[in-house]
Amino acid sequence: MNAPQIPHMQHIGVLPSGTLGTIADVSGVTVGHCTLDQDAIQTGVTVIRAHRDDPYRHKVPAAASVINGFGKSIGLVQIDELGVLETPIALTNTFGVAAVAQAQIRAAIASNPQIGRGWPTVNPLVFECNDGYLNDIQAPAIEPTHYAQALDAAAASFERGSVGAGRGMSCFDFKGGIGSSSRLVSAAGHDFTVGALVLANFGRLPMLTIDGVPVGRELALALRKQAALAATTKPEQGSIIMIVATDAPLDSRQLKRLSMRAAAGLARTGSVYGHGSGDIALAFSTAWTVAHEGDYIATPPLLNDARLDPLFHACADSVEQAIVDALWSATSVTGRDGHTRLSLHDAVPDLEQRLKQRNA
Questions:
Q1: Are strands 239-246 and 278-285 parallel, antiparallel or unpaired?
Q2: Beta-carbon neighbour count of residue 37 at 10 Å?
Q3: Which of 101, 158, 183, 358 has its CA 20 to 30 A from that of 47?
Q4: What are the entry keywords (predicted)?
């Protein structure tokens, strides 16, 4: 099942992207999926690895920002306190969080038998969105083996759209899911990469904005006339998880600042962080690691806060682009009780032409 990659997806902003155009442009970062696609079960797991070493023994600095806290993620409290990742980052549906967390714990113990004995316990990190419109979330279908499969599949080249945790997600009343992008910047005389991966499951169509163009209002009117999309006045109740990676040498306090700029990219697409929306961003750096054992933490020279603006710019642009990428890459899905989400391209075959006309 390969999501079609539209060759002319609009590039947002002026900053260049990396070679892959995904979060994997940050060296060492890999992504894997396990997709469940059978009748009413339309869900999955996505895993992001910061590096190939043991994440418990070689922790990376990280921080998160909760933009709107209507969510059931696990692991954020300890990240806020200690500022490091101890497991890969996992994404799944709301009721799959416990199973994936258990899988992370068991994997960490298998690699480090002293966890919970002579060593402290491990902090699993699982983010979620509610895919209950397309997926029978009450089943529940996610099992620990699905996390293991996604972890084993992690690679620099990965699919986006209706895959992994994104299988059952909706975005702006179309099919949503996994999206990713990257941006290249210079700061303090050095070149750095910022990459983003999103699990997009939010928004109502009239809100949709692409590269500053409020195309959602026009599309909503046209599609309702064609009976391709039912009229709706429901409030925004979805969620989005935004993962930001960089190779710039930042500490957890600076990464907290970087993660907050993901909200700028989210807002540009039309989100107002609705009451029922769980909007969370996490940023991590691959520039250095924290050894589990030892008396001191060796850090490289960190960027001065006054030099962070290029990274803030890259974060906002890459998150915005990743959300558009999720829409561009998704395929239509029919799931629970016959519910269907059309992909953006199935619903609006002439979208590229419309965007060009609006930008002319």
A1: parallel
A2: 16
A3: 183
A4: Aminopeptidase, Hydrolase, Protease
The CA distance from 5 to 325, in Å, is 9
Q: Are 289 and 60 spatial neighbours (Cβ–Cβ below 8 Å)? A: yes
How far apart, in whole angstroms, are the C-alpha atoms of residue 8 and residue 328? 10
Beta strand ranges found along the chain (DSSP E): 30-38, 41-49, 58-69, 84-85, 89-93, 126-129, 170-171, 174-175, 177-187, 190-201, 239-246, 278-285, 290-291, 333-334, 340-341
26-72 pLDDT tens trace: 999 999 999 999 999 999 999 999 999 999 999 999 999 999 999 99
Are 17 and 182 in contact by the 8 Å Cβ rule? The answer is yes
Tally the C-alpha atoms within 13 A of residue 113's C-alpha that lie toward its C-beta: 0
Cα separation, 24 vs 188, in Å, equals 23
What is the Rg, in whole angstroms, of the alpha carbon atoms belonging to the chain? 19
Catalytic residue chosen out of the listed positions 131, 136, 173, 279:
279
Looking at this protein, which amino acid is placed at residue 188? A
Choosing from 182, 277, 329, 343, which is the catalytic residue? 277
- Please report, as a single letter, which amino acid is at residue 123: N
Distance from C-alpha of 82 to C-alpha of 253, rounded to nearest angstrom: 10
- Tokens 């999720």 belong to 326
pTM summary value: 0.94
Give yes or no: 277 in active site: yes
Asked if 239 is an active-site residue, the reply is: yes
Of 239, 252, 259, 285, the active-site residue reads 239
Q: Which amino acid is at 343?
A: S
Task: Identify which of 317, 81, 340 has the alpha carbon closest to the alpha carbon of residue 212.
Answer: 317
CATH 3.60.70.12 at 25-359, yes or no: yes
- For residue 340, what are the CA distances in angstroms to 170, 176, 324, 351? 10, 12, 20, 20
Are 66 and 280 in contact by the 8 Å Cβ rule? The answer is yes
Six token digits for residue 233: 């006045």
Burial 124-145 (b: 16+ CB within 10 A, else e): bbbbbbbbbbbbbbeebbbbbe
pLDDT digits (tens, 9 = 90+) for 209-238: 999 888 888 888 877 665 555 544 466 668
